[in-house]
Amino acid sequence: MSAVFQFSARSVLLGLSLSRYRLLLTTSQQCNIGILQQKKYSHKRNFSKDSPRLSTWDISSEKCAEVSLDLLQEGRLVEVSWPDNSVSRFHSVWLRHNCHCSLCKQKYSGQILIDSSSIDPQSVLDNINVLDSCVELSWRGKEIHKGVIPLSWLKDNCYSESSRIKESQERNISPFVGNIPQVSFKDISNSEDSLFSFLSSTNDLGIVIVTDVPSESKSVSKIAELIAPIQNTIYSMIFDVVSKPQPINVAYSTAKIPFHMDLVYYESPPGLQLLHCLRFDPEVEGGENMFIDSFQAAKLFQEEFPHHFDSLVRIPASFQKIHYDRDWPVHMKYKRPHITLNPQGQVIGVFWAPPFEAPLQVAEEDVQPYYDAYHKFSQFLHECNLQVEYKLKVGECVLFNNRRILHARKEFILNGGTRYFQGCYINIDEFKSKVEFMMVQRKTGKHAKRVGNQCFL
Ligand SMILES: [Zn+2]
After folding, report:
1. What is the pLDDT of residues 423-436, one digit of tens each?
2. What is the CB-side half-sphere exposure of residue 172 using CA atoms within 13 A?
3. Ligand 1: centre distance to CA 103 (Å)
């Protein structure tokens, strides 16, 4: 059975706001979003191509059986008490911005249609009708509007402190300190469960090795295609890491390369890096790869050297790639601090690439503090025990988050042999999107973890 209750601002003023209104919702009820426009909106529990509104709070569950609402502060605030005993509070203006009616939101794209400048930020609610699994709302003020929002959507988008803390904790990553997990190419190609487990590990630890990859040129793209489109860069879709007489990048030589991230001079450096070992002849000496979790290193560095840490957050470094004598002449410069924090002080970005540094351009009084901090962190990366060494074997592909796991390479001597890798990149947001989608698809109720794309979440 369904019950419809009316709440009015007048009743709040009459002192009725302390009353709780019990709303009984049955599992099969549909949200009649278009009631004001005589159109039906249906909650889709399962996935389909035209279901952009995915709820992690399952409206069909029995926990949705009872929800109670209060209209408070003369219509400026709605308090919702959920069956799990949690409480959400939504501001009238927030609700107005998130109206789901067909005038405000496009049904299939889920995109906002309304011109937000027409919304009165001081508008208050004077009426709430609950019908089935939706709340109907009436705003008054300079703009009068009647709209509707699904209860499940409100639950999913609650912004209470406890909800925000919970989500933030869910996004915490595990430090990468030990062995690199391995998965078989065959497994992740044939099983969605294996693919999900592989992507979750990559998201959490930042690095995974795929084994049994066919030793054919461009096989690396077959792994990428399981995740997202390859990200094209100045090094092409697929690049060959093999020593050449006049390399356009130090990677294309036999030289030692210190810990760095690739393409740091881009506004959005590549997210995942894939390196597939096609040949590594036994006579080649050296050439091992080294990896380090820059987020964990930054965290430990902050504990030990807080003053230097603050300098790396505050003073911007400069990075560059200037090279004209190549197929695509390149002139890129980018200035930003080595470490970025969110408002809670959590590390959300680390940019470290000594081979691609440009001359420092900062205020005179910042030069010495910058170099003091820079050398301390550089030393810290080499002396902390977070480094992991791995020598790739033919048929293996290492896949790591270039925004988080710094990589290095030991010098090598060919001795007449060949060391040949092929690599490609995947955009970090597209990788995160894949993880997030698979989590919702599997109804895990979880979120993708931080990926180092400087998102505040
Ligand atoms: Zn609306």
Report:
1. 999 999 999 999 99
2. 13
3. 5
